[in-house]
Amino acid sequence: MYVIRVANDRYGAPYHLYLVFEYMEHDINGLIDKRIGFDISHIKCIMLQILEGLYYLHSNNVMHRDIKGENILMNNKGEVKLADFGLARRLESRPDCLYTNRVVTLWYRCPELLLGSNQYNGAIDMWSIGCFFAELLTFRPMFQASNEASLLELIYEACGSPSEESWPGVTSLKYFKQLGPKKVFPRKLREMFKGNTKY
To answer: What is the sign, positive or negative, of the torsion defined by CA atoms of 168, 173, 177, 183?
Structure first.
């Protein structure tokens, strides 16, 4: 239970807002760290629930903006919930609406944010979901890096070098000249997963 002090009444006494949440025994990262084995049917069930939750958010014009294993909770019945909406933001329909690109925990941050985009949508959550899915399959984060430049290099090596043909507008992103690929990387995502999962 969380207690938040909201304001004082006219006599100076504080109002409090009480937030009571259902108890969820685990976060998914904790289970991964403990090497709890999910079989393929469990992974499908987990991903289905996450995607249904994300569909609900996006249908209501809300971006989560920090999806990762620690923010995905599970109870002992196998029910999964998205948590931690501290970075969530309403998706505005105005084309001139700008958002900060300093969102999403680094290992789950998509290339457009890393390259400085201030105009994005719920697709940034889908990238994070993909990274999380890979983590469920391999027991390790897909892109582990200590800074944005290193993370982009790992992404280029796995997904290939972006170009105007594959990603229209990429070369006009704020940090592309500084952080764009220094050489042409072929896409090798499929090869990375051959023999590199527990299935």
So the answer is: negative
Dihedral of CA atoms 59, 65, 66, 69 in degrees, nearest 10, equals: 40
**Nearby residues of 44 by Cβ (< 8 Å), 6 or more positions away:** none
Q: Which of 27, 39, 66, 84 is catalytic?
A: 66
DSSP 169: T
pLDDT of 13-36, one tens digit each? Answer: 776 667 778 889 999 999 988 887
Largest interatomic CA distance in the chain: 68
Annotation says 33 is catalytic: no
**Is 0.85 topped by the overall pTM?**
yes
Q: pLDDT tens-digit profile of 148-186? A: 999 999 999 999 999 999 999 999 999 999 999 999 999
Q: Which amino acid is at 50?
A: I
Which domains, ranges and CATH numbers included, belong to the chain? 26-193 (1.10.510.10)
